[in-house]
Specification:
single chain, mainly beta, Jelly Rolls, six-stranded antiparallel sheet, four-stranded antiparallel sheet, 2 helices, 10 strands, about 10% helix
Length: about 180
């Protein structure tokens, strides 16, 4: 009797962008995320502001594309603002975690001042559209990918408060493997 080895297939990923509405129910709208940021404005520690549970049969990683190939990587933006007044500035952390949050890894930490335009007049005005001014986020290959039921999370720490955060939005590149 002979046995046959099952060939392991190589995972092939594709780029996507995670946005507010991809979050779990408690984090799935701009208003919900803005309320969480506002609630933690006076908190000097990092606070969880957004979370997404990785769907069944998927593996995710923060970032997309390769850092060695110019323009072949994802570009991100983020803002928390009191529209018409100003931005809530701080530090944004991209985090991966297992389902029970017993293994949590900070993947990247960014200053939010580099992640939006200079106008908080409207949601559209706050959203950058020129990749020459946006922050590149290639796939973060130094970190493990996370699978089914694991968590993709954003934490925020306010350093410069605005009056009242009423809008929060982002687009952050990720790679999905199926």
């Amino acid at each position: 009797m002979t046995t046959q080895r099952i060939a392991q297939r190589k995972l092939v990923g594709f780029a996507t962008d995670l946005v507010v509405t991809d979050g779990d129910a408690a984090y799935a709208t701009s208003a919900l995320v803005a309320a969480i940021v506002q609630l933690n404005t006076a908190n000097t520690a990092y606070s969880l502001i957004w979370e997404m549970t990785v769907p069944a049969q998927q593996i995710l990683a923060w970032g997309s594309g390769s850092p060695s190939q110019q323009r072949n990587q994802g570009y991100m933006w983020f803002y928390a603002a009191d529209l018409t007044t100003g931005f809530e500035e701080g530090n944004l952390r991209l985090v991966i975690s297992n389902a029970r949050s017993t293994r949590v890894r900070v993947v990247k930490e960014l200053n939010s001042q580099r992640l939006h335009t200079t106008s908080a007049a409207t949601d559209i005005a706050a959203t950058p559209t020129d990749i020459n001014t946006m922050v590149a986020l290639p796939e973060q290959v130094a970190f493990p990918k996370v699978g089914e039921n694991s968590l993709m999370q954003l934490f925020f720490q306010t350093t410069i408060a605005t009056t009242t955060v009423d809008s929060c939005n982002f687009s952050i590149p990720a790679t999905i493997y199926q």
